[in-house]
Design brief:
Helices cover 76% and strands 0% of the residues. It has helices at 3-36, 40-43, 58-65, 69-100, 105-117, 123-136, 143-167, 171-179, 184-195, 197-212, 216-221, 230-235, 245-265, 267-278.
Length: 280
């Protein structure tokens, strides 16, 4: 086999592998969207149809007019928005400290590992003490209680990611700002943070995706429709007597739209941010 044929064969294998990966990633999403437009009869028919035969909006009407899913989405947006914002602020300052302030290598390594090690603990281990503490503090069924837990989820990764991105910002620019009269804090907000904006966007997308899909703590810490988040609301469509596939498909389809819109909005910064992180 000559070299040209070998290159064609390698390219063909790469494209086939890529198509297989894309299929496994996108087909469940397509199936969920298609399910949301099927009638109840079509959902239970066999063999299942790949494309909806009797297109209907009935599942969306039942989910968003007959059930409090708009409220669930609002609850998720509030809690995730608060948690992501606080985690980015604290994580940026913590990452800056680890990247810039003089420390012994051993101390810096120990602190960095300790921050990340909090994410190595299985969440199920901490759920009971957190529930009891929040119950005594009257933080159950509140935005504040769930936000505190979610900040704890997002903060370790936010600190680590922002530390890597801030290390990419040239120190000379910051020192020039200090010579011009800036303080550490003003130099951070005026020079470092704008240059690390792509990393900030990448960290925000990562945090939002993780928190938007969080289920366990939202299930335990929220029990009323006043604070129930979207994943818990969707899980409520599975009961002992029926599985509401159509409404679950409709709610799931709408649930991914905010994430897609946000990811597309910051796509330019996201690609730059991931590239910055890749060189560390």
């Amino acid at each position: 086999m000559n070299r040209s044929a070998t290159d064609w064969l390698k390219s063909g294998i790469k494209y086939i592998v890529l198509l297989v990966i894309i299929f496994f990633v996108l087909f469940p999403i397509y199936w969920m969207v298609a399910t949301s437009f099927k009638t109840r009869l079509e959902l239970t028919s066999w063999p299942p149809t790949l494309i909806p035969q009797n297109f209907t909006w009935e599942n969306y009407q039942k989910a968003f007019l007959g059930r409090p899913f708009p409220k669930y989405m609002l609850n998720s947006a509030i809690v995730v928005g608060i948690s992501t914002t606080v985690a980015l602020v604290i994580g940026s300052l913590a990452g800056y400290s680890l990247a810039r302030f003089p420390m012994t290598p051993r101390f810096k390594q120990n602190v960095s590992f300790w921050i990340l090690s909090t994410r190595m603990i299985p969440p199920i281990v901490t759920i009971i003490p957190i529930f009891l503490i929040f119950k005594n503090l009257h933080l159950l069924n509140s935005y504040l209680g769930l936000s505190i837990v979610y900040i704890g989820f997002a903060l370790p990764f936010a600190t680590w990611m922002m530390r890597a991105f801030i290390q990419e910002v040239p120190v000379d620019l910051e020192e020039a700002a200090l010579v011009d009269g800036d303080t550490r804090l003003t130099a951070f907000f005026r020079i470092v943070l704008p240059l690390a904006a792509p990393g900030l966007a990448a960290t925000a997308v990562f945090s939002i995706i993780v928190l938007w899909n969080e289920f366990l703590f939202a299930l335990i810490l929220t029990t009323t429709s006043k604070t129930i988040t979207l994943p818990v609301g969707i899980a409520g469509l599975v009961s002992q007597y029926e599985l509401l596939w159509g409404e679950m498909g409709a709610a799931g389809t709408v649930a991914i739209i905010p994430i897609l819109i946000f990811a597309l909005a910051v796509q330019r910064y996201l690609v730059r941010g991931l590239t910055m992180g890749a060189v560390k």
